[in-house]
Design brief:
The structure is a single chain. This protein has an eight-stranded mixed β-sheet, sandwiched between helices. Helices cover about 30% and strands about 35% of the residues. It is built from six helices and eight strands; from the N terminus they run ββαααβββαβαββα. It has a single domain, classed as 3-Layer(aba) Sandwich (Aminopeptidase), CATH 3.40.630.30. It has about 180 residues and is α+β, with helices and mostly antiparallel strands. β4 and β5 form a beta hairpin.
């Protein structure tokens, strides 16, 4: 997917991030205690964020996209598949809705469904995995609405020097025949 190509949704679109997307607003959300509460990195500088985005762009085992509001092209979050295991046709999903004005509006669910659809239909992946803190109820709701199922609970996973219980989830693509039998 080229940088300018968009994965269009109802209210948002996804497109690969580029270095021009690294703005002070983007850096500010990642430094917001409410936004980064459950993220691995708690403090960002503009140069550190540019380096992070540049590394993702060079990595063939990563698909890193921005989430943008269709009405005003505002960058409101990020979503990524990383690492992608091309041999096993699977990847791990990560999502951040950084602009808090978009919280609680279904944007995370829409972004997740768009990314999963792209991964299965365009990238040829067969399985998407993720892990989420058990205390992150909004994210758990997003992933359930997107169709993810619980695989396991990892007790006392360490992150940033703290212990958390993490819910491990996955979503597996299905055959066309099986999908056709499922009615909405």
């Amino acid at each position: 997917m080229k940088n300018e190509e968009k994965i269009m949704g109802e209210r948002i679109y996804l497109r690969k991030l580029n270095l021009a997307d690294v703005s002070q607003a983007y850096c500010d959300w990642l430094n917001d205690a409410e936004v980064n509460k459950l993220l691995y990195v708690k403090s960002w500088t503009m140069s550190g964020l540019k380096d992070y985005v540049a590394q993702r762009l060079k990595n063939s085992n990563c698909f890193f996209a921005g989430i943008f509001d269709k009405k005003n092209d505002l960058h409101i979050g990020t979503i990524k598949l990383e690492p992608i295991n091309w041999r096993k046709q699977e990847a791990k999903l990560g999502l951040v809705i950084g602009n808090k004005n978009y919280w609680g509006k279904g944007i995370g669910t829409e972004a997740t469904k768009l990314m999963v659809g792209h991964a299965f239909k365009k990238m040829g992946l067969k399985k998407i995995k993720l892990s989420v803190h058990l205390e992150n109820k909004p994210a758990i709701g997003v992933y359930e609405k997107a169709g993810f199922k619980v695989d396991a609970i990892k007790k006392s996973a360490e992150q940033a020097g703290r212990l958390f219980d993490r819910l491990m989830k996955s979503l597996v693509t299905m055959s066309v025949e099986k999908a056709a039998k499922i009615k909405k």
